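Weekly sync, protein design subgroup
Attendees: M.S., D.O., the rotation student, P.L. (late)

Item 1: inverse folding check
M.S. brought a backbone from last month's batch and wanted to see whether the design step gives back something sensible before we order anything. D.O. pointed out we never logged the input encoding, so this time it goes straight into the notes. Structure tokens as presented (383 positions):
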């Protein structure tokens, strides 16, 4: 009987070990989230923008006195670090990679805007331009490649670029029109963004692949789309006009095309997609803007997944990492602050496992009482 009970015990352990990942996956979209206030650089306002797999966040904040906005790097347990600027009045941190490098743009001494790359221990460096007056950095990958846009000549049209450390800035062209902008770059060097199409007849989201070039990924039936985020599988999120003229978030998958993610009742935008295909962004309805999470085929209002007594209203979610942590901005005590929300274990899973463990313990106790082990044999028995 002991052997039978041990077998049952092992079976239950195997069940727990095998079921937990499945249960977590199935209920991940319904998880509750703990919220962290990123605070500010001394002013009254901050926005979180992107988040890496260590929970570090890039963004921008008013400094003391609300006189200027500076880029920041937020590190859990350390807080917010002012990244400074390129000599002018203000900087904005947008992309971040897993090494804590930040891409963005800053005003220079002469008043121009210039894309930058911030490296911990080294500081902020200007990335230059494609020959014109200004540039803007938006996304960065783990190799330190940066994408954004730059004027190609003085006050001309702007083109998307890829900056590679040691090689400089490369113009990646357009979809046939006059303007383009790169907004996100994955670890293969693929870029998501948007561009005027031929004749400037509209603006379409694109992917750029090294060695292949720029591909129009279409729309949801309307005349315009914007690519805002890309993951390592080449999935892209952003927004598009539908045939009815409504702006909806989308998820584009190579080989499958673009799907409409819907809204919470009005219009919506997807800002970031992680390697699990989860999308974050915002949805606007009846004068209100709510941060959203799209996961497992459903769209959720993040405000319904945090403690209602927290005092927070989450307005926009702009970044999500592969652990499901989300950054963005919302309102707390009447001020606009950046946030991180972190998934908590699903209570129903913990309850299920606890009930299972208690049930197994009770079963073993009842089984042993009903079927006691036989008395141990003496040394002489069976010989």
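Designed sequence read out in the meeting:
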């Amino acid at each position: 009987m002991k052997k039978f009970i041990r077998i049952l015990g092992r079976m239950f352990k195997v069940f727990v070990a095998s079921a937990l990942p499945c249960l977590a996956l199935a209920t991940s979209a319904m998880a509750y989230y703990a919220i962290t206030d990123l605070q500010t650089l001394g002013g009254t306002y901050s926005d979180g923008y992107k988040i890496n797999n260590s929970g570090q966040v890039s963004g921008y904040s008013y400094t003391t006195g609300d006189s200027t906005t500076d880029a920041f790097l937020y590190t859990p347990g350390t807080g917010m670090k002012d990244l400074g600027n390129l000599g002018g009045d203000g900087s904005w941190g947008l992309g971040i990679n897993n090494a804590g490098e930040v891409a963005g743009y800053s005003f220079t001494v002469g008043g121009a805007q210039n894309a930058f790359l911030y490296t911990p221990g080294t500081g902020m460096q200007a990335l230059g331009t494609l020959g014109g007056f200004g540039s803007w950095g938006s996304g960065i990958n783990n190799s330190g490649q940066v994408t954004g846009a730059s004027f190609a000549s003085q006050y001309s049209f702007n083109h998307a670029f890829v900056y590679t450390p040691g090689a400089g800035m490369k113009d990646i062209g357009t979809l046939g029109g006059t303007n383009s902008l790169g907004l996100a770059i994955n670890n293969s060097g693929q870029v998501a963004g948007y561009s005027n199409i031929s004749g400037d007849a509209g603006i379409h989201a694109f992917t750029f692949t090294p060695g292949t070039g720029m591909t129009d990924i279409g729309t949801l039936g309307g005349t315009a789309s914007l690519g805002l985020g890309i993951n390592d599988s080449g999935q892209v999120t952003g927004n598009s006009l539908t045939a009815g003229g409504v702006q909806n978030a989308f998820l584009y998958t190579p080989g499958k095309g673009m799907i409409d993610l819907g809204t919470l009742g009005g219009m919506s935008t997807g800002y970031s997609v992680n390697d699990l295909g989860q999308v974050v962004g915002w949805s606007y309805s009846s004068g209100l803007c709510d941060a959203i999470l799209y996961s497992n085929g459903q769209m959720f209002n993040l405000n319904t997944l945090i403690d209602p007594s927290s005092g927070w209203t989450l307005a926009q979610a702009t970044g999500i990492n592969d652990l499901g942590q989300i950054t963005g901005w919302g309102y707390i005590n009447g001020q606009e602050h950046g946030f991180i929300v972190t998934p908590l274990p699903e209570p129903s899973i913990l309850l299920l496992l606890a009930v299972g463990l208690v049930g197994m313990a009770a079963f073993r106790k009842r089984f042993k009482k009903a079927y006691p082990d036989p008395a141990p044999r003496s040394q002489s028995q069976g010989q």
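Discussion: Residues 2-27 form the longest helix (26 residues). The chain has two helices and 28 strands.
Action: P.L. to compare against the previous round before Friday.
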